[in-house]
Specification:
The chain is α/β, with parallel strands linked by helices. The protein folds into two domains: 179 residues, Rossmann fold, CATH 3.40.50.620; 124 residues, 3-Layer(aba) Sandwich (Rossmann fold), CATH 3.40.50.1220. The chain contains nine helices and 16 strands. A nine-stranded mixed β-sheet has the order 9-8-7-10-6-1-4-5-11, sandwiched between helices. A five-stranded parallel β-sheet has the order 13-12-14-15-16. Strands 2-3 form a two-stranded antiparallel ribbon. Strand 2 and strand 3 form a beta hairpin. It is elongated, with a radius of gyration of 22 Å. Bound molecules: flavin-adenine dinucleotide.
């Protein structure tokens, strides 16, 4: 068994999915404790180009697992290619981002490797020479530290926003070596036919990439009031998001919902307007670097995790804040 952490980076339509850098950051941090070498693998029909981007990070090696058969994603092909690769390279730990794609193939990969996978981890601990991963349980009410049983290689997937992509260390000099591995998917392996890639709703945003988010809760009262929050968001250069009731009401599109049944985000600033701070909402945003909560109820649970709090009426605070920001920017 090699003392290696293998990160499986994700690409979609030959573009690297940014959350892969969060996984690299996690691997680099864990490696500081275990002394492991961090390697990265990416699969695709032209994985080589993406591999170059990954090689700019402080990693020991990047593998581009290439085959025209990997042009369209299929769990069967990914499992077949990765099973062979992991058996050959014997990394101690395999880390993946907990994306929809990974949720699709990781359990099957663990089964094929006859190993343990810990999914959707939010952190890790290194205690007495043992690596533990933290997972949320019961909709985020509790956290549990979980360890692997059985022999390595072990697999863990990491929740979006649990590690910071901008903390993925760059290579100090030059690029990490890239090895292109031509792989073949044996005939009959893939049992599904991929059709055209599903395109998300027109104008859909990727909130996981937003630096500032202005989120609206039921305190906004009516759809027409959202314009006030949008004005604040525009002044801040922020994306607008919402709690579940706001999205359920159709006031904001569902892809802008934050929480356990929506997106998990970790922007530099999260402004929560009239959001009470139910646990299902908190799990989606508590990784934000700074949280500003504005709520008229001083006892609202959102204040327990807020870095800055304003006890007040959002209909007074929103326009005042928008105006102050505009003035500060000299607009
Ligand atoms: P409320 O809890 O009604 O809070 C409104 C807040 O606005 C209150 O704190 C109030 O004091 C404040 N307020 C009112 N008027 C003003 C004003 N004028 N000025 C300032 N403050 C004001 N929720 C999510 O958000 N995301 C999810 O993904 C999600 N998934 C769920 C999954 C399951 C299985 C379940 C059971 C629930 C889920 N929920 C989710 C719902 C969650 O439990 C809460 O009901 C929801 O988050 C509450 O939204 P809210 O904070 O906007 O509304």
């Amino acid at each position: 068994m090699a003392n290696t952490i293998l990160v499986i980076a994700e690409q979609r339509e030959n573009k690297l999915v940014r959350v892969s850098f969060e996984t690299i950051a996690a691997a680099q941090q864990i490696a500081k404790h275990t002394g492991a070498a961090v390697e990265v693998a990416v699969l695709g029909s032209s994985a080589q180009t993406i591999a170059q981007e990954l090689a700019a990070k402080a990693v020991a090696k990047v593998y581009a697992l290439e085959s025209p058969q990997l042009e369209m994603y299929s769990s069967d092909a990914y499992v077949a290619v990765l099973t062979d690769f992991i058996k050959q390279h014997q990394p101690e730990l395999v880390l993946l981002p907990h994306t929809y794609q990974v949720r699709d193939f990781a359990p099957s990969l663990a089964l094929k490797l006859n190993t343990t996978a810990i999914p959707d981890c939010t952190g890790y601990k290194y205690e007495n020479g043992k690596l533990l991963f933290t997972r949320q349980m019961f909709q985020g009410k509790f956290s549990a530290d979980v360890s692997f049983t059985g022999a390595a290689p072990h697999i863990a997937t990491l929740q979006n926003g649990s590690f910071r992509a901008d903390q993925a260390a760059q290579a100090e000099t030059g690029q990490a070596p890239v090895e292109v591995v031509a792989v073949t998917v044996p005939e009959g392996t893939v049992r599904v036919t991929a059709h055209e890639m599903f395109k998300e709703a027109k104008g859909a945003v990727d909130l996981t990439q937003a630096e500032i988010i202005v989120a609206i809760g039921r305190g906004i009262k009516e759809q027409k009031n959202i314009a006030m929050a949008e004005a604040l968001a525009a002044a801040l250069g922020a994306e607008v998001a919402g709690s579940r009731p706001v999205c359920d009401a159709g006031w904001l599109p569902i892809e802008r919902q934050i929480g356990s049944s929506g997106q998990t985000v970790s922007p530099k600033l999260y402004v929560a307007l009239g959001i009470s701070g139910a646990i299902q909402h908190l799990v989606g945003m508590k990784g934000s670097k700074a949280i500003l909560a504005i709520n008229k109820d001083a006892e609202a649970p959102i204040f327990e995790i807020a870095d800055y709090g304003v006890v007040g009426n959002i209909f007074e605070v929103m326009p005042a804040l928008t105006e102050a920001i505009k003035q500060a920017k000299g607009a």
